[in-house]
Amino acid sequence: MKYVKADLVFPEALLKEMQKYVHGEMVYIPKPKGIRKKWGEASGSRKNLIQRNEEIRHLFSVGQTIDQLSDRFFLSSCSIKKIVYSKK
What we know:
Layout: H1 6-9, H2 12-19, H3 45-61, H4 66-73, H5 77-85
């Protein structure tokens, strides 16, 4: 997160109003809810997990066992079962 000087961003009237509440402190202003990205969207982690889970489901459908998948993907058998038996 980068910091921006308030006097460069806000109109003077708004800056003076904010100074009534905060003096020389850092204030975090969150993005509106509709703009925020979900977990893993920016880094690509979500996409990677979706692809991995699709591969696990495919391998299970062609005959690999839960124990084999667990060893191959370094996941617990419970995690593999959740992926394989989910309705996706």
